Amino acid sequence: MGGLNGRDRAGQRSLLAVLVAIAFAGLGGCGGGDEQDADSAQAAALATAEAGPVAPAAVDATARVRPMFHALPVLLPEPAPAGEVSAQALGGPQQIVLDGVDSRIDTKRLTPSRFEARRAEVRAAAASGIVRPADTTVATVYDPDEIRRAYRLPKLASADAAAKGAGQTIYIVVAGRHSTAFADLNVFARRFGLPGCSGGSTVAPGTRLPLAAASATGGCSLLVANVDASGQLLSQVPTGDDEWGMETALDLQWAHAMAPMARLVLIQAASETLADMLPAVELANRMGAGVVSMSWGAEEASWATSLQSSFKGRGMNYVAAVGDDGTQSLWPAVTPEVLAVGGTTLSYDGVNPRRENVWSGSGGGTSLYFSRPSYQLAVKTQGSALGGRGTADVSFNADPYTGHQVYHEGQWLALGGTSAGTPQWAGILAVANAQRQRRGWGALSTTHISLYGLMGSPSFSDITSGANGSCRGCTAAVGYDHPSGIGTPNVDVLLTRLVPATAPNRPPVFGSLKATGRVKSALSFTVPVSDPDGDAITLGVEGALPKGMSFNAASRSFSWPKPAAGSHSVALTALDAKGNKARGTVVFSIGQANRKPSLPSASWSAFAGRPFEATVAGTDPDGDALSYTLTKAPAGMSISADGVVRWARPTIGKFTVSVKASDAYGASVSKKIKLKVVAPPSAPVVDGAAMSATAGKKWSFKVSARDANGDKLRFTVSGAPAGLSIDSKGKLAWKKPLAGTHAFTVTASDPGGLTGTARMTLTVR
């Protein structure tokens, strides 16, 4: 839409920021840096990836995220209660006049306790001549009804429960404690005619998760969950913090303004460190389906890619602020599964359609670590494709000089920042899910695909003026740009597209699109793709294929007789019979020439008639998985794919078994293994005997024993009179026998531990 006349206030800076800007004026940077330089860095990162993925850096658990709110340095007059017509209401949204000092105060994370300190900074700068305060500046502050009308949400008086988000859960993730959150929320609700919220209780440790589903008829409720670094619920409340307290008030109150019958769950992490904030998000995943609002962020680093799985909860949508420092790429907004919210400056008089331009403080940029997700493959900035995951995705009012009414600890404040748009987008998604639930459909599961499919349609207001820097993609333009994404929502139209009258046709779905191969080894890959509605699919490729590769659309397969080393990407489109399209990218990772596996030498033995099992364990110099087959074996013998050889009933004899180990690229090795099968072991047999001897005269006797397996036997005697012994060959001996009848036992043992015994009797006269 057309730009605004007048001064955009996002760029207000403290004295320190002004001095830094002067020092770097000659560098020509913007926000977080010139995107042309960022694109060069992106290209370098991608070039590195061609040789193999770069391992993500270890996550710095001490890294901190910061809240993204801005606040005007003034306390607002108490707004008129809902239903009353105030002087301000007669003239549209409330106007606040800031003098030359207040209009120069840095609004970022400004709390009332720091108003005077910031004023002193500006006065000191003015006195030194570094800053010359401007004349008075007029700010506009919007209440919930005005924002709802500006963005075309349903009128609350006539809206049904689903249009108010009933039956849905919005998770507000923050750091630290805001002890008055529940009371402040209800003061805000009463003042602006919104439904009040019940509850305010703490989710106790040991509570069974997921939570029971939110009530579709019971109205708003608030639960508070305190969480530690392991993701466990705590009974104690985290330490309080002024900045996070204001962020909490903003997030709760404006999520409620958009979805006033949704359940709110305030998740309070122990601190703003990454080690505490990520488990808070994961707790939301375990609590059950809903929308997670994250009005905070940290500069992305390579560790961000290792945390992506935390934003893939079943039935979950994630929304995050892109930041308030111009061109930048913040985590978690940069995560492809997260809806990244940028910022605009809003002009709305309560009568005419809203007008917006880019708020110059809005974050947004190109990631150096996440590649383009499928929903951004067709997105371009100034005619060029994105060099990586681009943020923002969407936008909302964020300029603190066109801010939002917020009630915090007895004071009315004007707050903005991309923090403000984040909970409001969470509320809009909650309303869409409530309306889908009413029709018996599931929650939005491909939110990005759905929204990007509406780019340029009446569902969105395309922001075409303003900038958050001077780099490519930082200036608002028709279509996509970094500070505003695909635009701000016209919610009435958007809901009709997200919740159509009939069940929507769903796009095809790709499975894993990763293929691996080796140089000099022919490669084939069949694309896994299906349609959730059972529609016929036409699969095609976009762009040129690597040299020598071919694609068969009928069989949905690639063939590459002679792959080239490196990483190669091929873009795909899957079109169903109803015109719904999905995009994906196959990545072919081709390693060096394949090498043969090896098998160790071995010999086996078995007993006839008894089950035989042995494991073949080959090794592959490339680390490839191996499969096994038998090329020669006795009847009845088999081998599993993972190398376990089995023979249920071996027969006596000597055999040669040939085993073949193969990798996935056709290299193989064979080994011959000798197998000897003998009769099963049986116990020795000892013959009993009745013997005689002469008293006092040396005596000996050879015990008769035998072993069917031909094993060498070992003999022992027990119960014999003193002096009577037996040697290893079974010979009994007694040098001076004593008169009498003597009974004893002879035992024969084979090497396997089997034994045979016999009772012997010796009569001595």
TrEMBL record:
One of its GO terms (molecular function) is serine-type endopeptidase activity. Residues 141-501 form the Peptidase S53 domain. Its cofactor is Ca(2+). The active site is at E247 (charge relay system), D251 (charge relay system), S419 (charge relay system). Binds 1 Ca(2+) ion per subunit. Keywords: Calcium, Hydrolase, Metal-binding, Protease, Serine protease. Ca(2+) binds at D462, I463, G479, D481. This is Subtilase family protein. It comes from Rubrivivax gelatinosus (Rhodocyclus gelatinosus).
